[in-house]
Amino acid sequence: xxxxxxxxxxxxxxxxxxxxxxxxxxxxxxxxxxxxxxxxxxxxxxxxxxxxxxxxxxxxxxxxxxxxxxxxxxxxxxxxxxxxxxxxxxxxxxxxxxxxxxxxxxxxxxxxxxxxxxxxxxxxxxxxxxxxxxxxxxxxxxxxxxxxxxxxxxxxxxxxxxxxxxxxxxxxxxxxxxxxxxxxxxxxxxxxxxxxxxxxxxxxxxxxxxxxxxxxxxxxxxxxxxxxxxxxxxxxxxxxxxxxxxxxxxxxxxxxxxxxxxxxxxxxxxxxxxxxxxxxxxxxxxxxxxxxxxxxxxxxxxxxxxxxxxxxxxxxxxxxxxxxxxxxxxxxxxxxx
Length: 337
Prior knowledge:
Elements: E1 12-16, E2 42-44, E3 51-53, H1 58-67, E4 75-79, H2 96-105, E5 114-117, H3 118-123, E6 127-131, E7 145-148, E8 153-154, E9 157-158, E10 165-166, H4 168-175, E11 187-190, E12 201-202, E13 211-212, E14 216-221, H5 229-236, H6 239-242, H7 245-248, E15 266-269, H8 273-279, H9 281-303, H10 320-326
């Protein structure tokens, strides 16, 4: 007769999403740190009576709570039907972020919104998503067209590195045409697992003609969208949206991509276009003013060329309609142009 603990369920699986297990990546003990002071928390050693560093081991706390019939915020029952051994990562079944999303969506601030997953938005033609171009080797980074790596996406902006550029002929091979297929106000985000996954940036006018690493996704409102890119940026930077990426990221220690798991991330949908414009006004003003300031500085550089300050790309921006007519913005497996 196999003993079944009191918490055991035939049709459910107990999952601990504890973020720590008492060890660092290097195998050393992980000290518990006070988030307010940054100082290590110390406790009395029962053997010596002296002070020692407390160990940050939430997994042990979960197991002790389970043993004692108690509960923690990182313990959760999941229906056995929902768990797949092909995706047996506890964090994927953590519903706290979805619960928080539902709670916020029920507040007065969001009473005029609905919500959809990214996957549903693609199916409804409200969103288009494509991957980046590819990764030129280091030996060919000697030209005029900027090459954008994941590390160039920071603080909501695409930051061009003037020392990391490729010849135009190389760029066209990665573009598979004469232009990049990118447009001003496109949103771009890392797709590889890292701490900045889910941080969206915006491509400003004059930054379109670049070669991007393949490990990014480029997002654009679809033809059925009742919002513009500035609303999309507003929505994707909400805490209740950004935090959902934590559930679909499996590892931080390698370069594993998130696959298509991000399609389950939920986003608030505005009542109509006017509603979208109203709530996203600060984002629109910020990026528009930033673009205008860049244009003014670019005009100054044209008249005063005695400066080393890289602000644009090798080519002038190409009109989005021209790109669409040329078929430059091609769909990938999960989106359509």
